[in-house]
Amino acid sequence: MLHARLRPVPRRHLLPLSSSPSAPRPDFVDPDEEADSDEDSEDLFAAFLPHLFPDDAPSFHGDPGQHLLYSSPRYGDLEIMVPSYPAQSRSSDHPVNQVEEGRKLFAHFLWSAGMVVAEGVEKADELESRGQLSKTDEVAMWSVRGEKVLELGAGAALPSVICALAKASTVTATDHPSSPALSGAIGFNMTHNLRTPKTPTSTNVTIQPHEWGTLEADPWAVQNKGCFTRIIAADCYWMRSQHENLVRTMRWFLASGGRVWVVASFHTGRAIVAGFFETALQLGLEIERIYERDLSSAQDDGSEVRREWMPEREGEGPENRKRWCVVALLKRHGEEAVKEDTLVSVHEVW
């Protein structure tokens, strides 16, 4: 089970769980009173909950500022710092607006969708290292060896860390300029996991603030237009007002022949994710491959449990919906598919 890869780091980092006790959970429900931050037993119990209640699988993990261990079968234990919630500054010109912008971003968690990307990249790298990865293999869609990777809305940037370990040529982790992730978490996760003898990498890794849709006005965006062959967007879809900006950003940075990985849980509902795909199709992207994955169970042989993507599922309740996510591979409209029989037309998806 995917969630079993995470466990809390024993409390040796003297960091507060959150600099704002009123920071809302990403399901838009205010949290109950936090447990004592020194109670490791509480952390362990919370980590085991998905095993007890698989239909109520979490879409996010950790608390702001907490350190988690991500157990990678290929790279060993990686320590991932969850971004802290940004403190309200008394000296800034618009402190309330900055904090409210931070609330919208919900960067201060590790999202399950990012773990889906990380696992896929790990599997592809493992097969490729053995010379067993075929272009017709399903897992080939996750290969990043020699690719130029861009992560949008990176948050804790676990996928970026994994892509660097999997020998991508370059990895750029981006988040909104006001994101708390840029205040130390991404930097820690990159430095701590990529600059050690245990996990050496020659990948060129950078961290870049970027606001979706601000393309011509951003010198970095202008310089890197059409440069990235793989774009990651994991759980970036809960703000409908940003769908168009997100798609335009994907198209702007996507290199010829490149692909976009879209992974989204349904914690804000299925309709809002379906709305993103509608926007993507309208603005010049195509869906090459799409399916739903069960985050809480696996086949007897350890392979994923999948089902057909559906924009609507009659009778689906919010509890059961949480255990599923959608995985899609997008490309520019009109480009040749990687594999003919995996091409999905607009009519087949909708």
From TrEMBL:
Compositional bias segments (type: Acidic residues): 29-40
Segments forming a coiled coil: none
Pfam families: Methyltransf_16 (PF10294)
Region span, Disordered: 1-40
InterPro entries (UniProt xref): Methyltransf_16 (IPR019410), SAM-dependent_MTases_sf (IPR029063)
A single GO cellular-component term on record: cytoplasm
UniProt biased composition (Basic residues): 1-14
GO molecular function: S-adenosylmethionine-dependent methyltransferase activity
Signal peptide: none
Top-level lineage group: Eukaryota
Bias (Low complexity) ranges: 15-26
Annotated SUPFAM superfamilies: S-adenosyl-L-methionine-dependent methyltransferases
Protein name: Nicotinamide N-methyltransferase
Native organism: Aspergillus sclerotioniger CBS 115572
Organism classification: Eukaryota, Fungi, Dikarya, Ascomycota, Pezizomycotina
